[in-house]
Write a structure and sequence with these properties.
about 550 residues; alpha+beta; six-stranded antiparallel sheet; nucleotide-binding; flavoprotein; chromophore
Amino acid sequence: MGRSGGSSGDDRAVQAGALRSDRARVCTISPPGLRPRIPAPCGTVVIGRRLCHPISPVRNFRKYGIIADLNEARRDALFAEYGVLDSQPESAFDDIVKFAGALCEAPISLISLVERDRQWFKARTGLDAEQTPREVSFCKHAMLGPGIMVIPDATQDPRFADNPLVTGAPHIRFYAGAPLISPEGIPLGSLCVIDSAPRHGLTPLQAQGLTVLAAQVMNLLEARRHLHAMERYDAILAENVEKFRILADTMPQMVWSTLPDGYHDYYNKRWYSFTGMPEGSTDGEAWNGMFHPDDRERAWERWRHSLDTGEPYEIEYRLRHHSGEYRWTLGRALPMRDPGGRITRWFGTCTDIHDHKRTLEERELVAHELSHRIKNIFAVIAGLIALSARTRPEIKPIAEDLRNRVMALGRAHDFVRPHSDASRSDLGQASLRGMLGQLFAPYGGPQGRIVIAGGDTDIDDRAATPLALLFHELATNAAKYGGLSTSEGSIRVEISADETHCTIRWQENGGPPVTQPPELNGFGSRLVQLSVVTQLKGEIDKRWQPHGLDARISIPLESLHR
């Protein structure tokens, strides 16, 4: 018969792999005309007289009546997921083997799980042994087929005639096994019934019943698998929670956590030792009662803003200590989000900064006092100059000029001295040109020897200090050695800005000729580097031209004003 009218030899071999007895379907993997053969090595199937690589995925084998996915590593991993091997007897499995034995009128019935080296019986009736070696297993063959494997008389089957379970107890003659296949298509074993007397096979009802019972075994195994996975997950979750608690309890900060809506449901031990409150008493919104009355509304507004926007939470407030004292605390929190970006929880800390804040306040007080005394020194010097001018009329013009310079230095000092909240608000927002004008006033004279050109930009008090130190140092050096050290010298300061940076160019002219660049390793040079690079996050490029210093200073706008 031609190819167009029938099947090839290999196709016939595959079709013959599922033979039917007069009562039940029998699955083999042997070519027609030959007696049944032992299955090929793990991971291969026999089609006709050839060894072929397995077809993937496994469901393709069912098309041909063959399953042969025997990747032992995958089977080991799957058995571990089920957590069933060597487990205690369970009534649900025991009831199935009892019913299977009664249905098929067989004295022995088993749920056999086939491992690498053994088959272990999850449930059994009529057999004392709990396991047997894999090499004598009938079920290792039965699990390879999509349907029930029936052996009418094992003594007549070359695969089993010399099997110890046939030649000795329990003297197997009849065997019928329904495969147990995982949802991934991996064979696990079989639900089988065994008789010591030969039989023709199973009735259609018995075959249907055994198939249904095998499916129920898999349902129970899958339920156990999910339960085992949940137990592993719960164990991992419990371990991680315990790790977090240990880590949080060893931190010097107070650690807390809230639900997405801000409901506080966790505090570490440090919180309770700091506040002295009973455990659980500050859950929910009760934590707000721990704030200083003057800080509560401000802290609530900031917290509500973070809950509404998802922005990080950070604020300083006074928190009640167990001693009754209110101590300054830095509160911070960040949200944890799921893959979709939704906030699932907030984690925060409270850090006791009371001592640090008091130390800073003391330092600031000392700095203010020193600054005030320095400012008074300028006033005293200016007064002495004025007094000398009144007693020495011939020096009055020079004295007046000197007095103006000293007073200008005093005004410039306002930019570099520490400020309290009150003095800072009086100083207000300043411009770069305005600050430079006051700084350079002592050096300007009637000829305006320092010219400020270009644009302008706002600066705040935080940027004013390093800027004033920087240009005061440049102007002092120019007065000593550069463009202001001669009567004809001058300096041009040009300001320009783009969207991100402010650039200031310092050009000296008319000073002593520069034959070689000076060494820049003194305190003044380090001060310039500290002011520009470290504090203002900018860059300075100094170039010594024959006519004097030519410097370019680039500073991010965000460093100049907040």
